[in-house]
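Lab meeting notes turned into a lecture example. A postdoc, R.K., suggested we walk through two folding results consecutively so the class can see how the record format repeats. The first protein's sequence and structure tokens come next.
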Amino acid sequence: MQRIFTWLDRFMRLDEVIATAAIFALFLVAISNIFMRYLFNSPLAWTEEILQMLLVWAAFLGASALVRRREHVFISFVTDKLPPRLAHWNEQIFSVGIILVSAAVMLYWGTQLLSFSAYRSTPMLQIPYYWIHVAIPVSAVIMIYHCVVRLVRQHSS
């Protein structure tokens, strides 16, 4: 079982790699449009659509990477005031339970959105919005995976 988690963990780290690449590409596309607009007086018309897609993918995959690294937002005000044993359970409920519920909602509504996205395309490049919105359920599945792995590892140790 541990070998499977090790292999899947390597694969699931792609969220961080892809999010980082999307942010870097976002920077390059934005800078190239700035240069084209102000140096050559000829802005690139397609950059807004690419920037939108890159930003959505970077945000959602970045969120799943933060869940894996346990760097997501966590308000520890209540946990700091509780005894250690209760603080542990409070942390589990909020850092795993709330994320699981949120990811399940993202997965459900993200897949509902995909059925509408297949029929719309971006105006300039004609990229189906499906390829933009599929980041939501993909990120949700990865978040659920990270939470389940965290729960399994905590209960097996």
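The second example is placed directly after the first for contrast:
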Amino acid sequence: MSNTGEPDLGMLIGSLGRSLQEELFAKLAERGHPSVRPRHGTVLAYLPASGVRATELSQRSGQHKQIVGVIVDELVELGYVRREPDPSDRRAKLVVPTEAGLDEISTARAILADIERRHRRDLGDETYQVFKAALEQIMRSQQSWRQH
């Protein structure tokens, strides 16, 4: 809480993130993906259809490569991804979405687009665009905190 008794930025963003995740994963379960958990987004949200190395997933998501490896193992077991040899380096492996993985990714994107449309409708297009631009600017500023 701030000195004024209002929620601070961390509280607001944390609460928004948790609520968004709850809605997303509840709707994913309703649409055929009950085994997917928020931690799986570390891989699925950053996974192109053509596949990518786990090290790249780690860089894209900002998660440690060991964490990404554990999540990839879980997703292989659940049938959402598979590991294939990288054609550019046969010693390396690509993490590639399966049909179930592709369906989960497209379903999640559709759900998130619906959520955004709802907020855009509730706030009005102009206010929503200003909000999102401001949030992106705050995110970039926050990410550069070590450089100040």
